[in-house]
Design a protein that fits this description.
- With about 130 residues, the chain is mostly helical.
- The protein has five helices and three strands.
- A three-stranded antiparallel β-sheet has the order 1-2-3.
- A hairpin with an 8-residue loop joins strand 2 and strand 3.
- Helix 1 packs antiparallel against helix 4.
- The longest helix is centred in the N-terminal third of the chain and has 17 residues.
- The C terminus is likely disordered.
């Protein structure tokens, strides 16, 4: 495995990417080793985040666990995250890539269902589980 020495500015981009991912995307990832991986100069950091220190290239070249989030941030792919508005993407890119402002707050959009549908779904779940052989 190649060693990649990142500048403090590049490490900041990686940290902001990880922090934002944790708040903006569903799921659990093993980011606890991030600082250790940065210090050891790994080319692939925690949970599949590949880095590059060449000038003129994105510091994060791939994210094997969430290629859509990576494409939205580093590939300027506005369609990669359909549940995120254009304004939110602009704000989150500005924060991750340039460190401008504070971490944007995610405005989660929930599936709109009526209270009656929600109650019926909630009541049906335990009953369905009991019917399984």
């Amino acid at each position: 495995m190649a060693e990649i020495a990142l500048s403090e500015e590049q490490k900041g981009v990686v940290r902001r990417y990880v922090q934002t991912w944790r708040r903006w995307r569903p799921g659990i990832r093993a980011f606890a080793r991030l600082e250790d991986d940065l210090e050891r100069r790994y080319e692939v950091l925690v949970d599949g985040i590949a880095v590059d220190n060449r000038p003129g290239h994105p510091v994060i070249t791939a994210d094997s666990k969430d290629s859509r989030f990576h494409a939205a941030i580093f590939g300027d792919d506005d369609a990669a995250l359909p549940d995120v508005t254009g304004d939110e993407l602009i704000q989150v890119r500005r924060y991750i890539l340039r460190g401008e402002g504070t971490m944007p707050v995610r405005k989660w959009r929930e599936l709109k269902i009526s209270p009656a549908e929600a109650a019926a779904s909630h009541r049906a779940a335990p009953t369905a589980a009991l019917r399984q052989p």
